[in-house]
Amino acid sequence: MEQMFSEAIGLIYDCVAHEELWPRALRLIAEQVEGFLTTLAVFDTDANSVRLAQLACDDQEAIDALMTYARDVPFYHLLHKMEIDDPVPLKRMFDLYGPDGEKVWNEGELYRNFHSRFGVRDSINMAVFKRPNRVATINVSTQYSDISCERFDIIALLGPHIRRAVTIHDMLEMERAERAVF
């Protein structure tokens, strides 16, 4: 376990220069907690768009379903309320939404066409960084309920490394965009 954890950290930093390595890094992260599908995204809250989107899963049908229905997540407006490096289960997102959070979730297209279809029972959700107009999150979907504290702790320990890699990548992307303007 320690060797795989160390390998995941190294690969996370390799992703700064080689964005195409994110799926491998996310797979290693998922293996740490027996995850089914893992996503990493940087959301631009001003433009309502995604600046970075990476995922890892061995089931192409699940990836296709997620990509088709991901826009249906009713919690995007809550991402700024998540604490950095504090992984939480899906239930916490329901609570942040309000009294009908779980009902809204269960009636949504993403739940019906991804979670229910592929046996996703819960997820580990964590803010990696927050800026006034950007939020980065990692999500590890699981096919089991009752996620142990140990699994949440593993994701929390990886948080600072993911944040540094994503922050550096984000800064480099902004610099490239600025250069393209001039």
Structure characterization notes:
By secondary structure, this protein is of the alpha+beta class. 51% of the residues lie in helices and 20% in strands. The protein is built from seven helices and five strands; from the N terminus they run H-H-E-E-H-E-H-H-H-E-E-H. A hairpin with a 4-residue loop joins strand 1 (37-44) and strand 2. The chain is globular and about 50 Å long. The model has no long low-confidence stretch (mean pLDDT 91).
Please give the alpha-carbon distance between the first and last residues. Answer: 48 Å
What shape does the CA trace take? globular
Low-confidence stretches: none
How many helices? The count is: 7
- Classify the beta-strand content into a percent band: 15-25%
Give the % helix. Answer: 40-55%
Query: Largest sheet, described in full?
Result: 5 strands, antiparallel
* Rounded mean pLDDT score: 91
Strand order of the largest sheet: 2-1-5-4-3
The secondary-structure class comes to alpha+beta
Count of β-strands: 5
Radius of gyration: 16 Å
Q: Helix and strand succession?
A: HHEEHEHHHEEH
Question: What brief labels describe this structure?
Answer:
single chain; 182 residues; alpha+beta; 5 strands; globular
